[in-house]
TrEMBL record, chain A:
Membrane topology term: Multi-pass membrane protein
GO cellular component term of the entry, any: endoplasmic reticulum membrane
Region named Disordered: 1-30
Protein name: Dolichyl-phosphate-mannose--protein mannosyltransferase
Domain of life: Eukaryota
Annotated metabolic or biological route of this protein: Protein modification; protein glycosylation
Matching SMART domains: MIR (SM00472)
Keywords associated with the record: Endoplasmic reticulum, Glycoprotein, Glycosyltransferase, Membrane, Repeat, Transferase, Transmembrane, Transmembrane helix
Coiled-coil annotated residue ranges, if any: none
Task performed by this protein: Transfers mannose from Dol-P-mannose to Ser or Thr residues on proteins.
Catalytic activity, as annotated: a di-trans,poly-cis-dolichyl beta-D-mannosyl phosphate + L-threonyl-[protein] = 3-O-(alpha-D-mannosyl)-L-threonyl-[protein] + a di-trans,poly-cis-dolichyl phosphate + H(+); a di-trans,poly-cis-dolichyl beta-D-mannosyl phosphate + L-seryl-[protein] = 3-O-(alpha-D-mannosyl)-L-seryl-[protein] + a di-trans,poly-cis-dolichyl phosphate + H(+)
Single GO term (MF): dolichyl-phosphate-mannose-protein mannosyltransferase activity
E.C. numbers: 2.4.1.109
Automatic annotation (TrEMBL), chain B:
EC number assigned by the record: 2.4.1.109
Assigned keywords, A-Z: Endoplasmic reticulum, Glycosyltransferase, Membrane, Repeat, Transferase, Transmembrane, Transmembrane helix
Transmembrane segments: 213-233, 239-257, 296-329, 350-369, 672-693, 713-734, 740-759, 771-788
Residue segments, region Disordered: 1-25, 49-81
Taxonomy of the source species: Eukaryota, Fungi, Dikarya, Basidiomycota, Agaricomycotina
Protein name: Dolichyl-phosphate-mannose--protein mannosyltransferase
Signal peptide: none
InterPro entries in the cross-refs: ArnT-like_N, MIR_dom_sf, MIR_motif, PMT-like, PMT_4TMC
Length: 771, 816
């Protein structure tokens, strides 16, 4: 094998061009020696490496970040894009009304908190994009300041990550400025949106993990534990801020597993007890603690939201009854036989309705009907929605025996036409596969069997009573085993465009569920109000874990269900190349708009960097396969371990979107963009010079001292980075009218800023020559 | 150093297993594990096992008979390495012991035996083939038994029988699957004398002149072949004789495979070619030390042929192809790291793979399509899926009679020239969103709603049927009027229903009413026959490629592959694209039918079509149609199932009507096999994890050679399973239980391998225990099969009279 000791000068690459002449006499295998002394480095490197310079750079970056993110933060004073949702949710926290959303609560609670701090009372509901904040007296600047602050803090953290990983100051500044001058981060970060908070937590997670890894020779020291628990905490915060924060957990999990696998290696000479100790420490810091925190945030969420609100209807009746002022809690009561009730479909909210008109004998497609009385779904209260429950068994005169229970077979009498609900094996008007619902005169017993329905309550035990509001049920036809069902399709004119009701052969479908909206009258016709004392009921209590489990399950289901198309949704392949953005907000009077789009120079640099990295690694693998080792081991380790860590973050936060079928937006790429900025920095470092700061891990009591090397990107580093940052800044300023939504642009200016033809900007000028 | 010339004493060769010419590689041929081959020689103990250490196992190349010792240095080092493994007796089992397991990592090359002189000698020589022959006969019985019992069109026979008929009638049809399977159905029909005139209505009784039994028998033959294939694959994978039996028995007695093989369906062929692919791959793997020998080439090429066939039956064959691909990549990566191999050899290896595994299958796939087009040369029901030029060449098509040059007043249909484009269509239904005007869509079937008339602009004189003929040329501004509803093709600045960034296209106005937004500029792109735009003076039907620009807003009429929701009958959305992208073929249109009494008919010779274009067009059409088969969220399909239901056999599938007076078939696996194989997958993954952890702590559980073999078979089985299964989780289309059937094969191989590893070849268990385990497993499979045989052979009488078939509450086998 021609390895390290090979006399052939495989490493033809030389370091920085600025290297002073006396370096060239150093013999070929002394690459390391060149940089073992920190004094031999170029002047720029030495200056920048000092603490003072470091602080100055961080200071400049942070001040710039705050300046760019807080610039005109009060503009527009209107609801922008998803502020519709997240602002509204913040209001609900303040008014303590229960709401339902697919995202975990932490970030939204922080918005609630921010709103509360600045004295917002939660009266505004953020109903439409473009609603004015000033007219409605919403202290929105305070709420926007929170993400702007966190988004600004992300910039020095990025710098810190790179610095801690042992890159030159100028390289760290390069990575930070990729985030600092990014229009997408800025635009996203200064509005009431979750992503800035998520990205802040993700970057903190990375930072803590890097610090933790650097202490690996001082295991179980208090500092070590501190950074480990810090990693777990911020990971939990990311996870609890937005659904895709779960990817951060995966992204940390992979390096942790690799790490543990290495500790397990017998060549390291560790005992199993030692390994177990490590394993347990990580289990506590990265599993137990985050899970606890995640649950804790939900606990706070559920503790705050104790009042009834718009989210009630998503939840199960048992959950709803824990909310103060909930309709179910107030009005739910047991249903007795001979009560008249109105029945409502859970999903489409229509009432079961019938009227004297009949089905036409022949439909447009030539099929024939029974010509029975129409049964339809109708959206409004009406006396034709009233049905009386007729028993099929003997009843006691009074008492609990008259309550309708699970699995009872009942008939439903339509009160105003005195006919029984019936279904039979005739195709329904719109769906040939489903059975038609109609009614049959009360005194004609010839079709008695077809009027029998079995009541099947959802999640009920045997003998459970049927309650209004809370007792969700399916109505199963006894002879033909179909479930009463309806769907949003309207019947034609002959049924007044009401909704079709038919018998669904698949009785397990979730959309078969109905509930009793109201008990209209008792048998005697008396009002039922006096049957039970209504109102003033105390909310029931329910185990937190049950409530959490129900909520979590619903969140997952609804998240997968977000498949509706959106004009600005885009597919993941477009994201790194910045092929399309999102129109956040437009203002017709001033031709102003906010268009979420990244800094073209920065994003394409990141793409180039990632491809370069993959190319370097691939070439290295292939070369090693052929017994050639072109890259020095210390550099190679850095490429694999530190850049690899960044690449894992990029990949884990990016590729899962390919298999998701929900609607996707470019802002889902922002966490990946942050990771790609880190990759870009380390690739730049590799390209400029193959030197790294080594070792960077803090020495432990048992580690052998190793010869140190020092990174040196020479003079050309600051120059290249300087020019690049300037270019980024110019680009940022050029598209800043789209980022800040001001000033307004005329048509030609818009066209000029449409750097890629796939960007869909508003107010573009028409092509002047109309052939 | 070792002496350069090594003489290895390999002991007395066993009977009927004469020593080969090579001086190592004496790996037992697995088949000699059949009980009759009781004589096990001392030879095994003296095998130079250390040659098989990890480092060198796959790098060795064929050596000459004399053994010139060139490649023997590694043996020195590896022997030393092996010493390291010996850590104070931690590895109780690692010491060289009698290897009871045959290992398939190299194949014994036996010289052909002398020609048999007596019958008994012949039998002696072929003793190893007796079990597979017995299994094949049993397989014939299970597959053919009562095969004509249900004289009805069962399940998807309605499709595939019908498609077979189209070949016999030579009419063009369209389907989402490639043609090979259906051509074989047609061949079965042809051989059994079927004339192709039955329309295979679902559930209908077969008339007397349809030889459905013969057709089913011929297709079931593919199902019969699965069993010996499974046997020989297990042999080639180096499994012990018990595992071979087990694999064959599981394939023989699974009611799912049995049931699906007994009808006129594609699945038996898909399964057959899946099985052959794995078999050829295993065969090829065993030739790895004899690169470029005849056998090596043969099995490499056969693997390629198998791949070509399996993907030509159904596209899911791509998944088993992926297994071959991964195997090849790993193999080449290994070879790439072999520094002793010359560049020429490397290139030959790469070339051989590219030729046999990429070019050959691709050529086969295209060849089947070529045959498909050659057979189907008559006009049929689905012509409109294809390009206009293709249709013009079908017998019975009248496009060639169309007048050539388009003129104002002509009645035309417009065909989108994008891949799988349809005809410009409109119908009385209106958009429920946007303008609420009449819908304009793209539609793949021919009806009168596709007809449009070219009329002059509103500001021109109305069309005079007796006036001079005005031919259409590039740049003309015209209106298109829908013949059936009199509406004008119209666009306005309202977002289109699906592609919201484009504007809506609708039908508006009538003979009298209309406005400037009805004007379209005809822009010629080029002409397929006459060449670039400069040669196009008048617009011709079929060959001239046009774009239609909306004069008022400058957008282009476009029909991509966006599907309208149910209110648009899932037809393709037509919109007006504001981006002028001259190379977007979805904005290209051509005139398809052209009716104008005042013009002379055209000439067929103008219309030539190219095979590659048609091939590609058809494949894109298949792809788009396949992707459109997504589950309707409004309605749960009672037949469909989710992939995660399959390994646990959560659902069965009723394949026909469930009346008491007909035979009922229920697609269901033999539960023991399905559940057992799924369990074995978990065991295999868990075992791998534990072994890796132990390896990391340097516990040596087995010799490198055993490890290599276990990993190799495990990779084929488990990765094969994952490649067949995981894509179904991701893909959006509706999935059914029978999609798991090819996947099941890999699960079955896994279970055989797991049992082989933990029971049949382990040294910890006695022969008696192995017999007991083997008998229990085989017995439970046989018993369960017998219990459930009815679901494949057909259940007569009322289903509820058959007790005890519902093993899981979700099976809808009983009438409730």
């Amino acid at each position: 094998m021609s390895g390290l000791n090979s006399p052939t000068p495989l490493r033809q690459r030389r370091g920085p061009a600025s290297r002073s002449p006396d370096y060239s006499v150093v013999s070929q295998d002394d690459d390391q020696v060149e940089f073992t002394s920190p004094r031999n480095r170029s002047a720029a490197e030495r200056i920048l490496e000092t603490d003072k310079a470091n602080i100055a750079v961080v200071g400049i970056l942070t001040v710039l970040a705050f300046a760019l993110r807080f610039y005109k933060i009060n503009h527009p004073d209107q609801v922008v894009f998803d502020e519709v949702h997240f602002g509204k949710f913040a209001s609900y926290y303040i008014t303590r009304q229960y709401y339902f959303d697919v995202h975990p609560p932490l970030a939204k609670m922080l918005f609630g908190l921010a709103g509360w701090f600045v004295g917002y009372d939660g009266h505004f509901l953020f109903d439409n994009i473009g609603d004015s904040y000033t007219e409605n007296h919403v202290p929105y600047v305070g709420m926007r300041a929170l993400p702007a602050f966190l988004s600004s803090m992300t910039v020095p953290i990025v710098y810190g990550i790179m610095k801690e990983c042992g890159y030159s100051t100028i390289i760290a500044a390069f990575s930070a400025s990729l985030v600092l001058f990014d229009s997408a981060h800025v635009a996203q970060g200064r509005l009431i949106l979750l992503d800035a908070i998520l990205i802040f937590f993700i970057s903190m997670t990375m930072y803590c993990y890097v610090r933790f890894r650097k202490l690996r020779y001082q295991e179980f020291s208090s500092e070590w534990w501190g950074w480990l628990l810090g990693t777990g905490t911020f990971m939990a915060c990311a996870w609890a801020s937005k659904v895709n924060g779960i990817l951060t957990v995966v992204a940390i999990g992979i390096p942790v597993l690799i790490d543990l696998w290495d500790i397990l290696d017998i060549k390291k000479g560790h005992s199993m007890e030692y390994f177990t100790k490590h394993f347990m420490a990580r289990a506590v810091g990265l599993i137990v603690l985050p899970v606890f925190l995640y649950l804790f945030f939900f606990w706070i969420h559920l503790t705050i939201l104790t009042h009834t609100g718009p989210g009630d209807t998503f939840m199960s009746p048992a959950f709803q009854e824990t909310l103060q002022g909930n309709e179910l809690l107030l009005n739910s009561q047991e249903i007795h036989y001979f009560d008249s009730i109105s029945i409502r479909h859970r999903d489409t909210r229509v009432f079961l309705h019938s009227h004297p008109e009949r089905y036409p004998l022949r439909y447009d497609d030539g099929r024939v009907s029974s010509q029975g009385q129409q049964v339809t779904g109708y959206g409004h209260e009406d006396s034709n929605n009233h049905w009386q429950i007729i028993p099929t068994k003997a009843l006691p005169e009074t008492g609990r025996g008259r309550i309708v229970r699970e699995n009872d077979v009942i008939q439903l009498l339509h009160v105003s036409t005195q006919t029984y609900l019936l279904t039979h094996d005739v195709a329904s008007p719109l769906m040939a596969t489903n059975e038609e619902f109609t009614t049959w005169p009360k005194d004609d017993y010839s079709r008695h069997n077809d009027t029998l329905f079995r009541l099947s309550l959802v999640d009920a035990e045997e003998g459970e009573s049927w309650k209004s509001k809370s007792g969700h049920f399916k109505l199963i036809h006894v002879p033909t085993k179909v479930a009463m069902w309806t769907h949003p399709k309207q019947l034609p004119e002959w049924a007044f465009n009401q909704q079709e009701i038919n018998g669904n052969k698949n009785i397990n479908e979730k959309s078969n569920i109905w509930f009793v909206d109201n008990i209209v009258a008792e048998e005697t016709g008396a009002d039922v109000g006096n049957r039970l004392n209504i109102g003033n009921k105390k909310p029931k209590s329910r185990n937190f874990f049950k409530k959490f489990a129900e909520l979590q399950l619903l969140m997952v289901q609804h998240n997968a269900g977000l498949t509706a198309s959106h004009p600005y949704a885009s597919s993941p392949i477009n994201w790194p190349f910045l092929l399309s953005g999102i129109s956040f907000w437009t203002d017709n009077t001033g031709q102003k708009q906010i268009y979420l789009i990244g800094n073209l120079i920065g994003w394409w640099t990141c793409v180039v960097a990632i491809s370069t990295y993959v190319g370097i690694i691939g070439a290295d693998l292939i070369a090693r396969r052929r017994g050639v080792e072109p890259i020095h081991d210390s550099v190679r380790n850095r490429l694999w371990n530190s850049t690899g860590f960044f690449l894992i973050f990029w990949a884990v936060h990016y590729f899962p979107f390919y298999v998701m079928s929900r609607q996707l937006f470019i802002h889902h790429y922002l966490p990946s963009h942050l990771a790609s900025a880190l990759v870009a920095g380390s690739v730049l470092s590799f390209v400029l010079s193959e030197t790294v700061n080594y070792p960077i891990s803090i020495r432990g009591p048992s580690t052998h001292p190793k010869p140190s090397t020092y990174a040196d990107v020479g003079m050309k580093g600051p120059i290249i980075v300087g020019v690049f940052v300037l270019a980024m800044f110019i680009m940022f300023c050029y598209i800043s009218p789209l980022t800040y939504g001001t000033p307004g642009l005329d048509g030609d200016q818009v066209n000029a800023r449409r750097l890629l033809s796939s960007w869909t900007l508003h107010f573009a000028a028409k092509p002047s020559s109309d052939v | 150093m070792r002496p350069s010339q090594v003489v290895i004493h390999v002991g007395t060769p066993p009977e009927r297993s004469p020593r080969s010419s090579s001086d190592f590689e004496e790996i037992q041929y697995p088949i000699n594990q059949s009980p009759s081959w009781a004589t096990r020689s001392a030879r095994e103990e003296e095998l130079p096992l250390h040659y098989m250490s990890e480092e060198t196992a796959r790098r060795r190349v064929l050596r000459g008979p004399s053994g010139n010792g060139v490649h023997q240095e590694p043996s020195q080092t590896s022997e030393k390495e092996y010493e390291i493994y010996d850590d104070e007796g931690k590895d109780v089992y690692a010491k060289m012991k009698d290897m009871r397991s045959p290992l398939g990592s190299g194949r014994l090359r036996r010289p052909p035996p002398p020609p048999p002189t007596t019958v008994s000698e012949f039998i002696q020589q072929n003793l190893e083939h007796i079990p597979p022959i017995v299994y094949t006969l049993l397989s014939c019985w299970t597959r053919f038994h009562r095969i004509g019992h249900a004289p009805l069109v069962i399940w998807d026979e309605a499709h595939f029988g019908k498609f077979g008929s189209f070949y016999l009638k030579r009419q063009f049809y369209f389907d989402v699957h490639p043609p090979l399977g259906k051509m074989l159905v047609a061949l079965a029909g042809l051989l059994s004398g079927y004339d192709g005139h039955f329309d295979f209505t679902s559930g209908a009784a077969y008339p007397d002149n349809v030889p459905y039994v013969a057709m089913r028998v011929m297709l079931a033959t593919f199902g019969v072949a699965l069993v010996p294939l499974a046997w020989y694959t297990a042999v080639e994978l180096g499994m012990s004789w018990r595992a071979c039996h087990l694999a064959a028995i599981m394939v023989l007695l699974d009611v799912g495979w049995l049931c699906i093989s007994r009808f006129i369906l594609l699945d038996s062929m898909l399964l057959f070619f899946t099985f052959t692919t794995v078999f050829c791959l295993a065969k090829f793997h065993n030739q790895q030390y004899q690169s470029f020998s005849f056998d090596w080439w043969l099995w490499l090429a056969m693997t390629g042929v198998s791949i070509g066939c399996v993907t030509s039956v159904k596209w899911v064959g791509m998944f088993v192809t992926a297994l071959v691909g991964l195997y090849t990549i790993e193999d080449l990566w290994e070879k790439f790291g072999d520094l002793r191999m010359t560049k020429r050899e490397q290139l030959r290896h790469w070339g051989a793979r590219i030729t046999c595994l990429i070019t050959l299958p691709l050529l086969l796939y295209m060849a089947f399509f070529k045959i498909h087009f050659m057979i189907l040369n008559h006009s049929g029901p689905d012509d409109a899926k294809m390009s206009s030029l293709f249709q013009a060449n079908l017998v019975g098509n009248t496009f060639s009679q169309n007048p050539l040059e388009i003129a104002i007043g002509s009645k035309i249909t417009l065909k989108n020239m994008g891949w799988a484009g349809g005809l410009l269509h409109s119908h009385v239904q209106t958009y429920p969103v946007g303008s609420s005007q009449q819908q304009v869509t793209c539609y793949h079937y021919k009806d009168e709603n596709n007809d449009w008339v070219l009329v002059p602009r509103w500001d021109e004189a109305p069309y005079d049927p007796d006036g001079p003929i005005r031919f259409l040329a590039d740049g003309d501004v015209v209106r298109f009027q829908h013949v059936a509803t009199k509406r004008n093709l119209h666009s306005h600045p309202i977002p289109a229903p699906v592609s919201k960034l484009n504007t809506e296209v609708s039908g508006y106005g009538d003979d009298k009413i209309g406005d400037y937004q009805d004007y379209w500029v005809v822009e010629v792109v080029d002409d397929l026959r006459r060449g670039s735009k400069t040669h196009v003076d008048k617009i011709h039907s079929l060959t001239t490629r046009l774009r239609l620009r909306h004069q008022a807003s400058g957008c282009y009429l476009r029909a991509g592959n966006e599907i309208l929701p149910q209110w648009g009958f899932k037809q393709i959305e037509v919109s007006c694209d504001k981006e002028n992208n001259p190379s977007d073929i979805y904005t290209y249109w051509n005139v398809e039918t052209h009716i104008n009494d005042r013009l002379p008919p055209g000439n067929a010779q103008f219309y030539k079509t190219s095979f590659v274009r048609d091939f590609w067009h058809l494949n894109v059409a298949m792809m788009t149609t396949n992707n459109a088969l997504i589950p309707d969220p409004d309605k749960e399909d009672i037949l469909a199932s989710k992939p995660l239901d399959w390994p646990f056999l959560r659902l069965g599938l009723r394949m026909c009507g469930w009346g008491a007076n007909q035979a009922k078939f229920y697609l269901l696996g033999t539960p023991v096999i399905w559940w057992g194989s799924t369990l074995s997958l978990f065991v295999a993954v868990a075992a791998l994890g534990i072994y890796l952890l132990r390896k990391q702590r340097k516990y040596v559980d087995m010799e490198p050679r055993e490890w290599d073999h276990m990993i190799y078979v495990g990779k084929v089985a488990v990765i094969g399973w994952a490649l067949q299964f995981v894509p179904f989780l991701i893909m959006g289309r509706v999935t059914y239980l029978h999609h798991y059937l090819p996947t099941l094969y890999f699960a079955v191989l896994t279970s055989a391998h797991v049992l082989d590893h933990f029971v049949f070849t382990t040294r910890r268990l006695t022969e008696r225990t192995k017999w007991i385990v083997f008998s229990v497993v085989v017995f439970s499979i046989i018993a369960t099969f017998w219990w459930f045989r009815g679901v494949a052979f057909g259940i007569d009488g009322s289903i509820n009279d058959h007790w005890g078939l519902k093993w899981r509450s979700d099976w809808n086998i009983y009438e409730e």
